[in-house]
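Researcher: Going back to the complex we discussed earlier. I've cleaned up the inputs and rechecked each line, so this should be the final set. Can you rerun the prediction on the complete assembly and write out the structure?
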Amino acid sequence: MSTAGPIGPLSLNTVTVKERWGLRDCIEGCARHGIPGISPWRDVLQAMGVEQAARQIRDAGLNVTGLCRGGMFPAADAAGRAANIEDNRRAIAEAHTIGAACLVMVCGGLPPGSKDLPGAREMVREGLHAIMPEARAAGVTIALEPLHPMTCADRSVLSTLGQSLDLCDELGEGTGIALDVYHVWWDPDLARQMRRAKGRIAGFHTCDWLVPTNDTVFDRGLPGDGVIDIPAIRAMAQESGWTGGAEVEILSRRWWSRDPDEVLPLLKERHETVC
Amino acid sequence: MSTAGPIGPLSLNTVTVKERWGLRDCIEGCARHGIPGISPWRDVLQAMGVEQAARQIRDAGLNVTGLCRGGMFPAADAAGRAANIEDNRRAIAEAHTIGAACLVMVCGGLPPGSKDLPGAREMVREGLHAIMPEARAAGVTIALEPLHPMTCADRSVLSTLGQSLDLCDELGEGTGIALDVYHVWWDPDLARQMRRAKGRIAGFHTCDWLVPTNDTVFDRGLPGDGVIDIPAIRAMAQESGWTGGAEVEILSRRWWSRDPDEVLPLLKERHETVC
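Model: Rerun complete. Updated structure for the full complex:
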């Protein structure tokens, strides 16, 4: 196991404080707490207005490490899939407007009532092919995010780094990987696939796996409160050419209930001490 | 995707009714409901007495499709690991006494407080090497069970079929795979690894993945109530030489609360209609 280099700058993924703060609060909060990066979700971005948000983020001097999220391609019928593709085209335009380093893709699970996993994967593949021309034209990197296998049914049939890299290989230029330690830490094939990801990591996300984990989606921990060896994964990312920082993204009912002005200093501390 | 052949006989994994029935109840219940197989957990086996249980299972004419479970090798110190290995030796003796087709291995997660996943995997590897001589001498197949990655921290660092087959390759004769559809259905590499498993499947377990899933351990569904394409996975198993039936193993707070004499007919029906 290699040693990690110094960690790059912190970025706040807005879902971390979603119950308390809109995007304007997040931008001001990052400035107030000295957090140099931000990664908005589309709901808060649209609520604020994309142009307005772009201006305020730029004025605050924040680095936009990503836009969350595109994807969610599978649907029960062709009209639904076409609508999802259109929505992804809007997401690409939004990512371009705010100068996001990438558009993070949570690719979607099984259509309601379906047990056809190969079919859902094919819908993801087709959706991605459909949007790549717009993404390339806009200069927006499509960052495929492998999601933990426990989300396969309802959030993402893209479950491993290896599977995501296979798709990057197929899709070609303009694609990359959004690597969240929460989703990949367990993977017995991780070291090999991280070498394969060389030059293709487009985002690095942190949080932690709690023991016990009481919810398959909303029980993530602050970095350091769980069992993930974050520096070990960061070292692999850095050896594969990642020179950026770490975006902290914590979906947690527990932390959502807290005052973000108390949470952000904790995120900064953990970023410096355990990531 | 190939078509599955006829399904083999049903076996009841005793954990499915653990809140209501001891092993004697399970044996009598299987006979009463016409379920030809049983797979006890060690707690109920020991509570009844191993010799006594072996006799009663034999008298009832039940096929013992497995003993659950060996494994749980990692521990914080050498004494703990040695104790775990000794416990596995007792499990091998018990599996031999009841004539179990295999000893199912749930290999164990991280030692308490540890973030050293490679280290925990090494403890599993060492533990398995340590017990193979006794297993071979007793003629007990060691069935490695890849567990869903959401159990990596606290139940099993063996997370994929591919990783389990790598270990089988290394351990050699006397090893096999316990394949539970719940643990492997999401795996993008499943078809390839199932081909690799040819001749090495030692057990086939059914249940279902519910949407939503409200607990990482105790919220499994009856076959047919979730999203797993069980016949597709069974077809792959049969193409890889599996000629046995299906052991139904449902860890579920919901189903544990029900009268087993109501649950067993449902299991039979689902076994025949959706597995």
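Model: Worth noting: Chain A has one domain: 10-273.
Researcher: Good, that matches what I expected from the previous run.
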